[in-house]
Amino acid sequence: MSLFLALAALAGKVLGGFIADHLGWRVCTVGALLVLAPITHAASTSAPAATAAIFLVQMTMAVTLAATVGCFPTRPATVFGFVSGMLLLGAMPGLTSFGSRYNLMRMPVVLVTLTALALLVGLSLCGRQNSA
If DSSP states are collapsed to H, E and C, what string results for 42-102? Predict the structure, then answer.
């Protein structure tokens, strides 16, 4: 199962970048998260749903990195380090008791939808032509 999840993550990042470059950043990222939202609950108990969820959430990674580099074009290495560090912040609820204490893991649809909204707003503010 670990191999399938790793391959899904790889495929999501690669295809997410390709799709984003061809259809637009907002279409790719927000679309992937809106498709992800209804399957998040099943992902904790179903291997196919978990694989699809990993694929869909990873589709946003290429755009997140590219948009952040666009905001700080003279500091691409710093941006990569910063964005990589944010992965730890995102994992903290699952690595600590914070997520269970505040029932964050019971509301994945809300969290995914809020993330989609944040990406929509952020990419709209970015104002880059690629974020069409």
Answer: HHHCCHHHHHHHHHHHHCCHHHHHHHHHHHCCCCHHHHHHHHHHHHHHHHHHHHCCHHHHC
- Residue 50 near residue 44, CB atoms below 8 Å: yes
Tokens 């690629």 map to which residue? 130
Q: What is the pLDDT of residues 64-105, one digit of tens each?
A: 888 888 888 899 999 999 988 988 887 777 777 765 655 555
Domain span including residue 16:
2-131
96-100 long-range CB contacts below 8 Å, 24 or more apart?
none
Q: At what angle do helices 25-36 and 2-23 cross, to 10 degrees?
A: 140
Indicate the number of domains in the chain.
1
- Which residue, chain included where needed, has tokens 């959430």? 57
Which residues have C-beta within 8 Å of that of residue 52, sequence separation ≥ 6? 8, 36, 39, 43
Cα torsion through 21, 24, 25, 30, rounded to 10: -130
Q: What's the whole-model pTM score? A: 0.79
